Amino acid sequence: MSKIIAVCNQKGGTGKTTTSINLSVYLALEGHRVLLIDSDPQGNSTSGLGIDKNSIEKSLYHILINHVEAKDVVLKTKVENLFLIPSNIDLIGAEVELVEEAQREVRLKRSLDAIKDTFDYVIIDCPPSLGILTLNSLVAATSVIIPVQCEYYALEGLGQLTKTINLIKENLNPILEIEGVLLTMADFRTNLTSEVINETRNFFRDRVFETIIPRSIRLSEAPGFGKSIYEYDKSSIGAQKYGALAKEVLGTGTGEQVSHEVPLAAESNQPETENS
User: What is the pLDDT of residue 153?
Assistant: First the structure.
């Protein structure tokens, strides 16, 4: 039975897309079949995997609005075992078009029901809002990863998010759980990072992942080349940390750094990397 994980926080800039892409890649590198769903109209998970979001013929929009079967939208990526349901700016229209539709909150779940068992993991990159697209993602999911940036106001709005998750669990999706809270963009040279880590762990207790994602130039650069951090610089600390996160999600690790030597499905023409 597949595990469907929504990566969700209504705040922008918390590392949702970076986490969605790189967690998906490292789960795939562990030998699992993974489907990444780009549920954000910005389409950054799509372009971050090297796919031109402006030239795709079918996207999540067509699944939600035109009832196109999910299997007809799934694309292969350059990473072995990793597949994508892409998105682009067309998805903005779905927010408006679904308003008057009956059972609009279960459109994604119903489409996934037909294909989810062909994947071990489905990762959903949610938009930075609590609108209908995020609602569809949470109704379809079995669990939620909440990225929290190690900066001021880090926990602002998380009360509303957890309330929303609880309401969905009570009314629409009784199996929904919090997979974990992921601390991102940590700068251990500052007292602020330590304060946010302590505050988050006091609030969420044992639901906080041991792995903490550092602030990293390499992680910021990789999407510009349409590559995951593994493809861009697999020796960087950011790559090691996302590898460790995948181990935690799989239940085979505790946040320690790991390395992978798994070939990509196709040549990626990756640039020479500098020291991280």
Answer: 87
